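Take a careful look at the sequence and tokenised backbone pasted below. I need to know what the token row says about the fold.
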Amino acid sequence: MDKVFESENIIYVRPSFDLVPDYLEMVNDIENVAKFIGDRREPLTEEQEIDYIKDKMDNKATMFSMLEKTTGKFIGNVEFFNRVFEEAEWGIVITASMQNKGYGKEALKRSVEYGFNELGLTRIYLGVYADNPRAIHVYESCGFKEYDRNDVDVFMEINKET
């Protein structure tokens, strides 16, 4: 797989059709994963996931799949999307079996660094469900600040220090 960058415990690679079974297991886990990434409640098919990954590849999306360095086991995905000039929205999804192991915080720190230093971003923002205090805590501990909130979502950002 095409390694783009790495951190202490994670290798970040381009999306791959080889990982489709892992992607499907992750995004179809309604109880532990899907409820935090959207309103969809119906499982995705293999064909739908292949089309999604093909679209990401064709559009050269700044999406990266994360693999555990020591085992090569799939962790999840991070992505910079909605890129406009020097700003982008950041998102992460981690498969249930790899949650609560510190990968989210490590991925956040390293991918923000990558966004600022390699992609030339000056502002990275994200939205998180207000009822996900664990994620909000991680984002705050990595320097993100809340800039807006409603009944459902909290919006946070981090700016490149100049």
In short: The helical segments are 20-27, 46-58, 103-117, 133-141.
